[in-house]
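Quick note —
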Amino acid sequence: MFFKKKTEVQRVIPTHIAVIMDGNGRWAKKRGLPRNAGHAAGSKTFKEVARYCNKIGVKYLTAYAFSTENWKRPKEEVDGIMNILRDYLKDSKNYVKENIKLGFIGDRSVLDEDIQELMRIAEEDSKNATGLKCYLAINYGGRDEIVHAVKNIVNSGVSADNVTDELISANLYTDYPDPDLIIRPSGELRLSNYLVWQSAYSEFWFTDALWPDFNGKHIEQAIDAYNKRERRFGGV
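Predicted structure written out below.
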C-alpha cells in the first residue's frame, strides 16, 4: 500500500524526480523466480510510483527503464523486457484518464517498429494531459546523449566559440527541467550513466529497498531528506 503523508508547513515537493529502477533481478532471485518476473513486478511498481508522484504534485518524473548497455544482457531477458514494455505501452491509455502525460528519452530508432509506434501513440494520446509529465528512458545512456547533442550542434554549423551550456542543454533528449532529486534503490551508490549532464546539481537519495518493493513510503522518505538539504548551486 502506498503511504499518504500529512501536509507539512513549507515542505517543498521537488519539481522533477528521477529514479533508477534497479534491483528487479535480485528481487526475483531471492524468490526463486526468473529475472523477467522481477522486471514485470518492477513495471507494476513504476505505475504506482507515477500515480503517487502525480497525486502529491510532482511535475516531472523520469525513470531509467533500459540503458544502452542493457543490450549486453542475455537475449531471453532483453526480449522479456521488451515484451513487458509492449504491455505497458498498450495499457498507457489508463494514464490519460489520470491526467498523466507520457514521453520517452533515448534513441528509439533501434527499437522494434511496433514498439516505436506504441510509443508514438502513447505520446499522442496523452499530449493534452496537464498533470505529471512522466518520461521513460529507453535505450538511453548519458554519454550517448551528450554525443548525440554534440553531433547535432556540429551538423548545424555552429562555431566552437558559440557553443554554450544552454546550447548543449537544448540539444539533449530532455526538453524539460533538470532533476532536483535522483533516487536509486537496491543499495547501489552510483549514477550508472544516467542523466549525466542534467544531474550536475541534483540531490541524490539511496535506499537498500529493491525496486519491486519500492513504494510511496520511500518517496516520502526521499522528499523528507531533500527538504533537509541546502541547495546553493555553487553559491554561498
